[in-house]
Amino acid sequence: MSGDELFMQRCIDLARPGLGRTAPNPMVGAVVVNAGRIIGEGYHQRCGDHHAEVRAVDSVRDKNLFRDSTLYVSLEPCCHHGKTPPCTDLILQKGISRVVIGTVDPFDEVAGKGIARLRSNGCEVKVGVLKEQCRQLNKRFFTFHEKKRPYIILKWAQTADGFIDSERLPGSEQRPTWITSEKLRMLVHKWRTEEQSIIVGTQTALKDNPRLNVRDWQGPSPTRIVLDRQLRLPASLNLFDNSQPTIVINEKAEKKTDNICYMKLPFDDLLLQNITARLYGDGKQSLIVEGGRQLLQRFIDQNLWDEARVFIGTRFFGKGVPAPRIHPLKPMSQIIIGMESFYCFKNT
C-alpha cells in the first residue's frame, strides 16, 4: 500500500462511525498530513454538523504547517453553500497546496465542481485513490444519486431445510417461530438503525404484527412502510402506534394523520418502482425489505435490489413457506455465528 493509499484508508476508517447518522449527507473522513505524519483528522459525524475537512483542519495545532501539508479526504470537497459553508473555500483559505481525493461526489451540486475550483486556484489535486473502497463506504449515497432510488437491502431468515415460516393463516393466534437466536435478532435491530426506511407486506403485518422499530440496540428507528391496498389493516396493529413515521401504501387515499402518511399508488406491475421513486423524492437513501416471501421475491424478480442478507438457522420445519429464491450467485461473504450461518449477496 502506497503512502497515499495508507492515508486514504485512514479516512475511510474515520468515516465509518457516521453510518446511520449523516444521511442525507455521505460519510466522509479527512486527514491532514505533513512530512509523512498525520497532524489533524476528523469525520462527518451527523447531518448539519461540521464536515470532515473542517474537523480535520480545526484539529491541527500548528496552523503554520498547512502550506506544506496534504489534505486527504474520502469524497470530493463540497463547493456550494448548504447547511455549512463550502469546504473548498476553507482549503484555499488555509493555503493547503495538495489535496488527495478518494472519489468524485455524485451529487449534482458538486460532481467535479469542487475539484475544478481547487485546481483553478492553483491547488494540486489527485483523484481516485482507493476509489472503489470509498464508493463502497457510501454505497447508499451513490445508489441514491446515480440510480435515483434508495439502496435496497433484502433480509430474511430461513430454516436449514429452506423455509421462512410455518403455514399460518392471517388472524391466526399462532405466533411466528423464531428461526435464529436472540443475538442475531440484536444484529437485525442494529441494522435498522443504519437505514432510513423498512417495508413489509400486508400478510406480514397481519400474521406477525411487527413493530419494525429498534428495541435491542441504541439508535434511530427507520420510517416504516406497509402495503395495504384497500386500507383494511386494523388500527390496533403495532404499525399504527404513532411511535415513529409510518407510510401506508394503498389505492384509496393520499393524506397524513399524526405520524402516519397514506401514499396512494396503483397496485400494478410498476408498484415497487413507484414506491422507490416516491422514497427517492422524499430523500430516503436506503430501504430494508423485511416482508414475507411474496414481497421479497417480487423485488428479486424485478431485479430491484442491491444486497441480500440471509440467515440460515438450525431448525427444520419439514413444510411451510419456502424461502425466496435468488438467482445463482456466489455470496459476497459468509460468516458462521455459533451454529447459524449468515450470507451476504451483492447484486452486481
Keyphrases for this structure?
alpha/beta, 348 residues, 10 helices
What composes the largest sheet? Answer: 10 strands, mixed
Low-confidence stretches: none
Helix-strand sequence: HEEHEHEHEHHEEHEHEEEEHEHEEEE
Q: Helical segment tally? A: 10
Strand content: 15-25%
Rg calc: 23 Å
Determine the N-to-C terminus distance.
26 Å
**Quaternary class:** single chain
Helix content: 25-40%
How many individual β-strands? 17
Mean pLDDT equals 92
> Which strands sit side by side, in order, in the main sheet?
11-12-10-9-8-13-6-14-17-16
Identify the overall geometry: elongated
Structural class: alpha/beta
Structural account:
The strands form three sheets. Strands 11-12-10-9-8-13-6-14-17-16 form a ten-stranded mixed β-sheet. A five-stranded mixed β-sheet has the order 2-1-3-4-5, sandwiched between helices. A two-stranded antiparallel ribbon has the order 7-15. It has 348 residues and is of the alpha/beta class. β1 and β2 (37-43) form a beta hairpin. 26% of the residues lie in helices and 24% in strands. The protein is elongated. The protein has helices spanning 3-15, 52-58, 87-94, 113-120, 131-137, 139-147, 182-194, 202-208, 271-281, 293-301, and strands spanning 29-34, 37-43, 69-73, 98-101, 124-127, 151-158, 163-165, 197-200, 223-227, 246-250, 255-257, 260-264, 286-289, 307-312, 321-322, 333-337, 340-346.
